[in-house]
Structure formats: C-alpha cells, structure tokens
Design a protein that fits this description.
heterotrimer; A mainly alpha; B mainly alpha; C mainly alpha; B: mainly alpha; Cytochrome C Oxidase, Chain A; two-stranded antiparallel ribbon; 17 helices; globular; C: mainly alpha; Four Helix Bundle (Hemerythrin (Met), subunit A); 81% helix
Chain lengths: 102, 544, 217
C-alpha cells in the first residue's frame, strides 16, 4: 500500500455543539408533535421525517459524510435507503393487498 | 505487459508456498494473512463439504431409485435438509468468491493483498466455526433439522429437532460472507494499480465486486430472520407464530429477501469466470465489455426485487404475485445479454479447445436451460402446477450445478496451473467433462419431466407411475458422480505428478498470467502500471 | 458563563491541524467501516420491515400497547444517546488536535452515558417484567394479538440495540487503553474514528426506535 499525505482538518468543537442542540430541539419537536397530530394517520410520516432529519445531522456532521469527497461515500447512504425502501414497498404489495382479488 | 515506474523491489522470488512468514507448519496456514493461502484454505474445506453434500445426494437418490423405502421418512427429511444447508451455505455461496476471489482479485487489480488481511483470516475462521456448529447440530439436540434448508415457520418453530443450533451456524456463516464482501469491495476501490481504471478491470473482478455488494446488503436480512427463529424457540417472542398474531408469510418474505439474491451471489462469480475464460480461448476480446460489466450490476440490482416468486402459492396477495412475476421476467434480460455476448465472442474467434473452455461451453448450455425453465416457472399459471414438484429442483440444479458448478470447475481448470505450478492431464479432464455432462443431463432433465408430470418434491416415496423417470434420474446421478470422481482424481494427480506449468500456459492477458506460477507472496516484484484492458492479446503476442 | 465556554472552545479549536503520513490507507479503513455500518442498518432494517407490516395490520393494538411504555424514560434515553454522540465526536476531534487528556475524558463520558442508557433500559424492562409483560408470559398471551406482537418486537429490537450499545462501550474501553498507552494519537486515530462511526450508527437506530415504539399516536 502506498504512502500518502493527508491533511486532516479537525472539525471545530462548536460545530458539534450546535448540531447537538439541533438534535435535542428536534427530539423535543417529535415529542410535542406526536401528541398533537391530526389525523393520526399522518403522524408516522411526520415522525419519520423528523427522525430522518436527525439522522441526516448525525450522518453529515458527527460522521463527517458531508466532508467526504469520494463518490462512493456520497452513494452509500442513498443506496441503503433505496434498498430498504424497495424491500418495504414490495413486502407491502403483499401485506396491504391480501384479500383483494385482482 | 510491461511494468512501469514507482514502487520498491521486493525480495527474490520464492513461491508463496515456501514463504511461510512468522509461523511454521500448520500454523503458517491457519494463521496466515496471505490472501492466496486463505483462498486455498477455503478451497480445501469448501471441497470437503461439497463431497459430503454429494454423498447426501447419493443417498437421497438411492432412496428414490425405486418405490418403497430403505430409510425412515424422518431420515429422508433430514437428508434433503442437510444436503441443502451444506450445499448452499457451505459450498455454493462461498466457493468462487472465497477461493478464487480471494486468490485472484488482488492479483488481477495489481495489488499485493486484500484491503483487510486480518479480517480475511477472520472470515475464514467464522466459516469454519459456522460449519462446525452446523455439523454439531446433526448429532445433538434431537437430531438434524428436517425443515428443508428454508426453515419455514411455523414448522421450524415447533419441530423438536435441533433447528436453533443449525440456524445459528448459518448465522455465523452469514457473518463470514458479509466480511468477505466488505473486504473485496474495499480492495477493489482502494488497491487498484496505477492505470487500472474501472473499464480496464477483468470482468471477473466486476463480477466479484457486484457479488460482494449483494453479500453486504442482503445477508443481514437472513441474519436477523434466523435470530428471530432462535428467539421464538427459546423465548416465545411470537413474531412468526400465528397463535400469537405472527404471519408465516412474513417469514417467507424475510427469508427470500436474502435467499433469492443469494442465488445471484452464487451465479455472478461463475459468470465472471466465463467472461474471463472465453476470450482467452477465442483469442479475441470480449464482445461488449461494458454490457457484461453493467449487466452484472443489473442482475444484482433487479435480482433483489424478485423474491416473491418463491411464494406464488403461499397466500400472498394477487397483486404481489403479479408484481413479482413481472420483475422476474425483467431479470432474465441482463442474463440473456451475457449469454449473447459470450457466444458473440466465440463467433469468428480462433477457438482453442481446452478443458477451461469446455466447462464454459457446458455452462452456457446448462445455464440457458436453467434460465428458460426459470421463466416458465416465473409465470403465474404454470407455477401453480409446478411449485413444490420436481420441476423446481430440476430448474435450480441446472442453474446452480450446471451453472455455478461448471463455472467453478472451469475456474479450477483455468487457474490450476497458476495456483499450483503444475498442469493436469488435459485429455483426462476433457473425458471427465464429457461423462459429467452426459450424467448431468440424464439426471436433471428427468427431474424436469418428473415435475411436469406432477411428482412432488421432498417426498420420500412415490406412486408407481413415476418409477421409470426416477430410475433414469438415479442412474444419471451415478454417471455424474463417476464423472466428478474422474475429474477430481485427475486434478489431484496433477497436483502431485503433473508437469511443471509455465507462467502463462493459456496466453491470458490479465495480470495473474504475467507473474510466476505459483506466485510469490508479494504477487508482484514491482506494482505494474496498467496501459490496456484485460483482453489485449495482440500486445501480449507482440511482446513474445 | 456561556460566553466563557464558547471562548475556551475557540482556544482549543486553534490547536494545530494534524498532518500525517498514511502508513496504511486511512480512507480504506473508513470505507470498510462504512460498509459494515450498511450491513448493520439492514440487520435492523429487517426488523423494521416486520414492524411496519405488523403495525399496519394492528394499528389500534400498537397504539394501545405503546401507551404502556415510559415515554419520559424513552425521551431521556434519546437525549442521553445524542449527548454521547456529541462526546465521542468531540473526543475524536480532541485527539486529532493532539489533546490526549481531553480526548480520554470525553471518551469516558461517552462510555458513562452508554452505561446510563443501559441502566435505564434495564429499569424499563424490569418494570415491565414485574407487571408480567414479557415474551410468552401468561399476562401477555391473554392480550390481543397486536399487543403480543408489539411487545415481542419491543423486546427483540431494544434488546438487540442494547447489545450493540454494550459492545460499543466495550470497544471504547479498548480504545481508551490504546489512547492512554499512546498507540492511538494525533498521527494515528482511525480505530477511534471507526469506533465513533459505530457508535453514531447505534444512535441513529435509536433515533428511529424512539418514535416508533414510544410515540405511537
């Protein structure tokens, strides 16, 4: 394997603190919204949206995905999301349509 | 193939066999970090399990030779369960990636080893651990599993045999598979030699790369499913148990979300072998390099969307039936592209008849039959009739054994001289091939006919109307086994008594043929700079 | 007070950047870890698929069962884990700036928070078990199918998650020793960074588990 020189720019501490504050606020939001959403059917999508946002913050800032340059790092999270989405949707093509005769 | 600038020169060339590193004797093998030694360790054990799987199959066919029975029904259930578990999880899924992927992927990209050599060793140890656990499950806790390798709930939750241990063994094997996938993807991304761009990679590397992605992404799903079976049996969790609200069909979804893509983990590497070997023996570059590379990725992707075709009669919704059937038809397209491209490569090539090519030709023929029968059963109406009959094992043995198996044997015969520095008897190899091909078709085509006639699978006995086809099938299986014995005996003999092989007996243009047979530990004296693709035979011939 | 904290953070920020030679492939090591993370996401993903199917089929039962969980504890645990992610991220930044002692303190804080999380979880489980709600218990089996499924999924998913937290704490203890010995330092810290990635994964999984189990309206 080759030797390469890599400049590491450590992230500023305050960036992490701000992200953490955002996460705590979003947690509070998800809690208050959960009790307040009508109709209840939409609640899960709102909850997932907030959870997704929180995860995005963790992925991009705590896990440094935002500062990764190589294409592969930009691809992997969308890839796993797509895979998971497809698995759920196709499973639901069964679960949600039982007893419906085509 | 010239090497250009950069990189240190390594110590004088001794083969990796002689260079044992820190340890002596057996420790220098089981504690090795050399990808080539690890590949050979897998070789030994994968073959050992293949032989045990064949023996189990032999007894299954003996039972089915004539109506009546020579064993208890429970024994037969365990035989086909174990045959499936061993063949699928211990042989077919690991074989090509762990043996030839490990041995040759680093060399083919111009690297000295994989990205994570210690993880590579760990993968092998996990494989051995999983295998031992599966073997132990045969002799303990109520006896070997009798559920079929598919472990369907709720039967797998209730049967008193040793399901938990067997299932746990498979879980460990899954971990091994995931780690191998991680290693090979990272290796391909990070360790390519200068100038080895993605469009100059051997197609075998493309195939292993696609396979590794599937291993990483879908194996965890069966991992969690197996854990849930264990949780249900020990703690009564209820996730698949109808008495507690669980849905056995959801079990099937979770199981097949892995196990269908697993069939692509099995076949893609074999297709990679074919794509590497055919051009060498046609002395011509592959027809449609990019099409083959991308079709491998497409097969991996679309193949992960079709799992419901194992469940057409399970009770899933009609809508899902239709959707999965449609997707199944789509996945045939990239496979057909590959077959077309291989044949187009041979067309107007300078064909050299050697054992590796013969196994490739057999692959193309047998895989095509397997693929076409797959389309027939992928259509809803025929599936109603064919599901759970002998048609299904007929189909998948054409694909797995005729496809992956013959691809594996092609790889043996192609890379044998490189790995061992010796050549086997080529005439004998071709004779063994012929015997196998004849036996194979008599055996498995009879199965297709049996299924068409309505013979159910996993039955230990049958009605008299099926007797002649069963007799024929068993007879074919004996011819096939004879061919296997001839083939392995020939290779084994070549290992010890074969002539010393040259560095490049076949005139291949990929990197492994530019280094000694067998290779030195560090693979290359200098890391080569790459200036052309994997099929540039002309330049090779110009350099003499 | 807040101003003082911010000012001291700024001073620490201005520690020298680390420039080092990659004796091994730093990016490759990270890539390997990320691929492992993908596999873990799908391991839990499998359970989320089951959860979604069963919740779809039993919406009222899931809602009813969810209200029996301690929302306050769940929310507290969420904050604990988010804070532990902060502490490990800053621990890595510290070691990159050569601030070894700070890095170790932050790492120990992360471990403490992890253990606190587990203690809370244990307490939650304990109260449920005391009330007779656990897999295969007569009390649970007497309830509706949807509720049995809810609690089955609850125990398995939070249990598997808790196991991952425990493993993370153990890995961090090894990292702590390596930092103390100087094996991990400003020039070589990728094992800690990878351990951090693992921990953030565990945090992300909980970010989804929390609303799906505790906040079903």
């Amino acid at each position: 394997m080759e030797n390469r020189e890599v400049k590491i720019h450590p992230v500023k501490y305050r960036t992490y603190v701000f992200v953490w504050m955002g996460l705590v606020i979003l947690t509070g939001l998800t809690y208050t919204v959960a009790v307040g959403i009508h109709p209840a059917g939409w609640a899960i999508f709102v909850a997932l949206a907030i959870a997704g946002t929180k995860s995005g913050l963790v992925l991009n800032y705590f896990m440094h995905l935002k500062s990764e340059r190589l294409v592969i790092f930009k691809v992997i999270i969308p890839l796993v999301m797509a895979v998971f989405l497809v698995f759920i949707l196709l499973t639901f093509s069964d679960v949600a349509f039982r007893g419906v005769v085509k | 193939m010239t090497s250009t600038g950069a990189m240190e020169s390594i110590r004088p060339r001794i083969s990796f066999y002689e260079d044992h590193g820190k340890y002596r004797g057996i420790l220098s093998w089981i504690l090795t970090l050399d990808h080539k030694r690890i590949g050979l360790l897998y070789f030994i054990f994968v073959m050992a399990f293949f032989f045990s799987g064949v023996v189990l199959g032999f007894f299954m066919r003996l039972q089915m030779l004539a109506p009546g029975t020579i064993m208890k029904p429970q024994t037969y259930n365990s035989l086909f369960t174990l045959h499936g578990i061993i063949m699928i999880f211990l042989v077919v899924i690991p074989a090509i990636p762990t043996i030839f992927g490990n041995f040759f992927l680093p060399i083919q990209i111009g690297a000295r080893d994989v990205a994570f050599p210690r993880i590579n060793l760990l993968s092998w140890w996990l494989y051995i651990t999983g295998a031992i656990i599966v073997v132990i499950s045969v002799f303990t806790g109520g006896g070997p599993p009798d559920t079929g390798w598919t472990f369907y709930a709720p039967y797998s939750l209730r049967t008193t045999v040793n399901v938990p241990l067997a299932v746990f063994g498979v879980f460990i094997l899954g971990m091994s598979s995931i780690l191998t996938g991680i290693n090979l993807v990272t290796t391909t991304h990070r360790l390519r030699a200068p100038g080895m761009t993605w469009n100059r990679l051997p197609l075998f590397v493309w195939a292993i790369y696609s396979t590794s992605w599937v291993q990483i992404l879908v194996t965890p799903v069966i991992g969690i499913t197996l854990i849930l079976i264990i949780m249900e049996r020990f703690f009564g969790v209820g996730v698949f148990d109808p008495a507690k609200g669980g849905d056995p069909i959801l079990y099937q979804h979770m199981f097949w979300i892995y196990s269908h893509p697993a069939t692509y983990i099995m076949i893609l590497p074999a297709m990679g072998v074919i794509s590497d070997v055919v051009p060498v023996f046609a002395r011509k570059r592959i027809f449609g390099y990019m099409a083959i590379a991308i079709s491998g990725v497409a097969i991996a992707a679309v193949g992960s969307l079709v799992w419901g075709h194992h469940m057409f009669v399970s009770g899933q919704s009609d809508f899902a039936d239709i959707l999965f059937s449609l997707l199944t038809f789509l996945v045939a397209i990239p496979s057909a592209i590959k077959v077309f491209n291989w044949v187009a490569t041979l067309y107007k090539g300078s064909i050299v008849i050697e054992p590796p090519l013969l196994f490739c030709l057999a692959f193309i023929f047998l895989f095509s039959i397997g693929g076409l029968t797959g389309l027939i059963q992928g259509a809803l109406a025929p599936n109603m009739h064919l599901h759970d009959t002998y048609w299904i094992p007929g189909h998948f043995h054409y694909i797995i054994f005729g496809g992956m198996g013959f691809g594996l044997f092609a790889a043996f015969h192609y890379w044998f001289p490189k790995m061992f520095g010796r050549m086997y008897n080529r005439k004998m190899a071709m004779r063994a091939w012929a015997v196998m091909l004849v036996g194979f078709n008599i055996f498995y085509f009879s199965m297709l006919l049996l299924g068409w006639e309505g013979m159910p699978r996993r039955y230990y006995d049958y009605l008299p109307q099926f007797r002649s086809l069963h007799l024929t099938a068993t007879f074919g299986s004996w011819i096939l086994i004879a061919g296997l014995i001839l083939m392995f005996a020939n290779l084994f003999r070549g290992l010890f008594k074969g002539e010393k092989a040259e560095d490049n007996p076949w005139g291949g243009a990929t990197l492994e043929w530019q280094i000694p047979s067998p290779p030195p530990t560090e693979n290359f004296e200098k890391i080569p700079g790459i200036r052309h693709g994997p099929h540039d035979f002309k330049e090779l011939e110009n350099n003499g | 007070m807040a101003l003082m904290i911010l000012r001291s953070l700024k001073i620490m920020d201005e520690a020298k950047e680390a420039v080092f030679e990659e004796a091994r492939d730093y990016t490759g090591a990270k890539l390997g870890m990320w691929l492992f993370i993908l596999s873990e996401l799908l391991l839990f993903g499998g359970m989320f698929i089951l959860y979604s199917g069963y919740r779809y089929k039993n919406p009222a039962d899931f809602h009813h069962a969810s209200r029996e969980l301690e929302v306050v504890l769940g929310t507290l645990n969420t904050i604990i884990l988010l804070t532990s992610s902060l502490s490990v991220a800053t621990s890595i930044a510290a070691i990159q700036k050569g601030q070894r002692k700070l890095s170790m303190v932050l790492l120990m804080a992360t471990m403490a928070l992890g253990l606190l999380f587990l203690a809370n979880k244990g307490f939650e489980w304990g109260t449920k078990i005391e009330h007779g709600i656990y897999p295969n218990s007569p009390t649970l089996l007497a309830r509706s199918k949807g509720e049995i499924l809810f609690f089955g999924l609850y125990y398995v998913m939070t249990g598997l998650h808790g196991l991952h937290v425990l493993v993370g704490v153990c890995v961090f203890s090894v990292m702590l020793i390596l930092i103390a010995k100087g094996t991990l330092n400003q020039m070589r810290f990728v094992p800690l960074e990878n351990a951090g990635l693992y921990w953030h994964l565990v945090d992300i999984i909980w970010i989804f588990l929390y609303p799906l189990f505790y906040l079903i309206t």
